[in-house]
Amino acid sequence: MLDADFFRRWMTAAAAAVDREAERLTALDSPIGDADHGTNMLRGFRAVTAALEKEDPATPGAVLTLSGRQLISTVGGASGPLYGTLLRRTGKALGDAAEVSEEELAAALRTGVEAVATLGGAAPGDKTMLDALIPAVDALAESFAAACEAAEKGAVATTPLLARKGRASYLGERSIGHQDPGATSSALLFATLAEAAGE
Ligand code: ADP
Ligand code: MG
Ligand code: MG
Fold first, then answer.
1. 59 alpha carbon to ligand 3 midpoint, in Å?
2. Atom of ligand 1 nearest to the CA of 34
3. I want to staple 128 with a disulfide (CB 3.0 to 4.6 A). Which of 58, 97, 122, 175 is the partner?
4. In what residue span(s) does the DhaL domain sit (predicted)?
């Protein structure tokens, strides 16, 4: 079973990964965006770790809803509301249980990813974070490690795609040949989930 501490470890590991990879995320956002994805994620996840320390939420659901709220309120770019919705809706789906099973987390994350798709109006293959998030939740039934691998594969597979949503879509054909920054940060999110689980 996964308790609040597990989710706190996940968010802390995600913040550390964003810290390490911020430059790379911004560099990916440079040819097909406005070169701020790393900065956006840094600002958001610093607010997440600060809020978790200050408020010390007691349940898995509360850890994720608090984290999601921070991302929505501190990140100006598209990724803030999208990741914020992912975490908030996942947290809401977990309810107020003190511990949740891996199956419950997988189902809750699916609800969260569906909310991201509804909010952003993107479909698989549109070269967005969904191209990493959807294969990751699909593989979560198997293991955290499988989800991590699927997210990374999904992120890499955005390179030849034509962007149909977000800033990159303004470039049309010129968006082809670049890995999507949001799909790349989504892979980090699932890598750190596996890390928190010790896989
Ligand atoms: P902005 O584009 O506002 O500067 P970021 O650079 O932080 O925001 O985030 C860009 C990422 O957000 C993209 O790489 C993409 O993965 C994701 N994104 C943008 N629009 C959408 C959307 N409508 N649906 C899903 N993901 C999206
Ligand atoms: Mg950007
Ligand atoms: Mg921006």
1. 32
2. 4
3. 122
4. 5-195
